[in-house]
Design goal:
373 residues, Rossmann fold, four-stranded parallel β-sheet, 14 helices, 8 strands
């Protein structure tokens, strides 16, 4: 398989169709607090839903509240119009919007006479011994139910094999991000986002093979010249074109803190053989993916500041989806910490649809010009 598939930003259903054609199930999920490892251990394909290139979500708007974000509405639109053809949906309460996707899709599916597997798990917003135990129980129940769906019981050995596979993927993503630390990187921010988004459409074996091929060829790529090194943070961003508009104005995005970027993968999972499911629960609850957790926001800010230093960032772009529950007001707390290390921050509001590309280009150019001076 050519690694060019890593740069196909449109949602592809090829891998899902091939998987289902073999008699296996494919289930969607939205928030990255749903562990993929449990799906693979049950021999089910996990498909992280995204809304890339959705230009019209009017059907979904009839079901979602006007206070919902356009990212969530667009995912529901793709479920309604058949862009996604899956055997069900699993969701955590990462924020309220994915929960609304699940509620509405459950209702619409039943109304249409579809028999789908619809299930939600609870992911606590505080991490301690009690909440990890609760989350472990939630994941175990999910594992049992997925085993019933697929006919393959989720065992510790199957989980460990799945974790080994996702850890291999995480190691390759870490290599990809190391490329961005170079003075003149060979990969742009929009390209990296395309690569991380590709994991949503491919099986893990396909994705690992493509990543290995790309990394092996990276030395042959031309280094990128830029006027300013940028970091992008904020709401779920699944459209590489958004970053390309910024980079076309001379800024190179060398780092990110987003749930479709590095935070979707994270560091290696360390497994305790005596408590495999507990290891998974602790990892996913401890992992800092966004400001949803009440006790990890200082650590999130520390991560952002540390990455700014590690990647030689000169300015931070804080993009937030309108009506974003998690990232809506985080800039108030974060900006002073960035100012303390001499980094300016550009705040941008956006919608899922790229309706304001011209305005974005103007603001990005002005920000890059300021940094260049």
């Amino acid at each position: 398989m050519s690694y060019e598939k890593l740069f196909e930003t449109n949602i592809s259903s090829e891998s899902v169709k091939a998987w289902k054609a073999s008699g296996k199930k494919a289930l969607g999920y939205v928030c990255c607090h749903v562990p993929e490892e449990i799906f693979y251990a049950a021999d089910i394909l996990p498909v992280r839903l995204r809304a890339t290139n959705c230009v019209d979500s009017s059907d979904a708007e009839a079901w979602m509240s006007s206070f919902s974000c356009s990212y969530a509405r667009s995912i529901l639109q793709y479920l309604m119009n058949g862009t996604y053809d899956l055997d069900g949906l699993v969701q955590s309460d990462g924020c309220m919007m994915p929960t609304r996707i699940l509620d509405n899709w459950d209702h619409l599916s039943k109304k249409a006479g579809k028999k789908l597997f619809i299930y939600q798990i609870g992911a606590p917003r505080i991490t301690n011994e009690t909440t990890i135990g609760y989350y472990k129980a939630e994941l175990q129940t999910l594992a049992d139910k997925l085993g019933e769906v697929s006919g393959k019981k989720v065992t510790d050995e199957a989980l460990k094999a799945a974790i080994a596979k996702t850890n291999e993927m995480r190691a390759l993503i870490a290599q990809l991000y190391e490329l961005r630390k170079a003075e003149k990187p060979v990969v742009s921010g929009s390209e990296v986002l395309s690569i991380t988004l590709a994991e949503c459409d491919l099986t893990i074996d396909e994705y690992i093979a493509a990543l290995k091929e790309f990394l092996a060829d990276a030395k042959n790529r031309k280094p990128i010249e830029a006027r300013a090194r940028l970091m992008v943070i904020g709401s779920a961003l699944d459209n590489p074109e958004y970053l390309k508009v910024i980079e076309d104005k001379g800024g190179l995005i060398v780092a990110d803190n987003m749930c479709f970027g590095y935070k979707a993968f994270g560091k290696q999972i360390v497994v305790d053989d005596k408590d495999v499911m507990g290891s998974l629960a602790k990892y996913y609850l401890d992992r800092i993916a966004c400001p949803r957790s009440l006790d990890s926001r200082p650590a999130l800010h520390k991560d952002i500041v540390a990455d700014c230093k590690a990647y030689g960032v000169q300015g931070v772009i804080y993009q937030k989806m309108q009506n974003c529950e998690c990232w809506g007001g985080e800039s108030f707390y974060l900006e002073p910490e960035l100012k303390a290390i001499g980094l300016p921050m550009l705040q941008l509001e956006r919608e899922e649809q790229m309706a304001n590309a011209g305005q974005l280009a103007i603001r990005a150019e002005a920000f890059v010009e300021m940094l260049d001076k």
